[in-house]
Amino acid sequence: DAKTTQPNSMESNEEEPVHLPCNHSTISGTDYIHWYRQLPSQGPEYVIHGLTSNVNNRMASLAIAEDRKSSTLILHRATLRDAAVYYCILGEVDYGGSQGNLIFGKGTKLSVKP
Amino acid sequence: NAGVTQTPKFRVLKTGQSMTLLCAQDMNHEYMYWYRQDPGMGLRLIHYSVGEGTTAKGEVPDGYNVSRLKKQNFLLGLESAAPSQTSVYFCASSSRRVLTFGAGSRLTVL
What we know:
The structure holds two protein chains of two kinds.
Chain A: E1 9-13, E2 18-23, E3 32-38, E4 45-50, E5 55-56, E6 61-64, E7 70-75, E8 84-91, E9 108-113
Parallel strand pairs in A: 1-9
Antiparallel strand pairs in A: 2-7, 3-4, 3-8, 5-6, 6-7, 8-9
Chain B: E1 4-7, E2 10-13, E3 19-25, E4 31-37, E5 43-49, E6 56-57, E7 65-67, E8 73-78, E9 87-94, E10 99-101, E11 105-109
Parallel strand pairs in B: 2-11
Antiparallel strand pairs in B: 1-3, 3-8, 4-5, 4-9, 5-6, 7-8, 9-10, 9-11
């Protein structure tokens, strides 16, 4: 299974942008890049996903390198509520059966300072 | 719209006891999953299901059984609980590509 590498922790100041990096040098052509985050004492929640092109939604932006071996999750203005563990995960098109069980690593713990 | 609901939220068991965790989703999702999360660790997949009546083993299936008799429910059973099964258990369901998780069930085995 293709794996990802993320920093263990990062710090940010409130209302500043945050760039969370993820390396995935063994990514295959059918792997989507998924980001989830887990707030304290909660289940993970979906943030964003993409395949090749950069993606934006109301929560964040995902910048994908041209060779797809790395990506960056961008939070445009961090708030205290964004303090969480962020997981970068590779998954194939469909989650069914052996095609695409998502493997959650340890993620990056983001701290946001007031 | 409740999403994914897990019951119970907390449970304390003695070694050797059995119990069942229930996961219910109201989004008509085909796929459902059970994960466990230990302190400082990511989530590890226990079992999953790709549809009603089907189940399959994940990364750490030993000591657990599952059933998916109805599309909306996915049950995780511990036949003889062990202290090593002390963990937080998360259920998830998915349409294509997006997982929706429950709030978790914290299980302690003494």
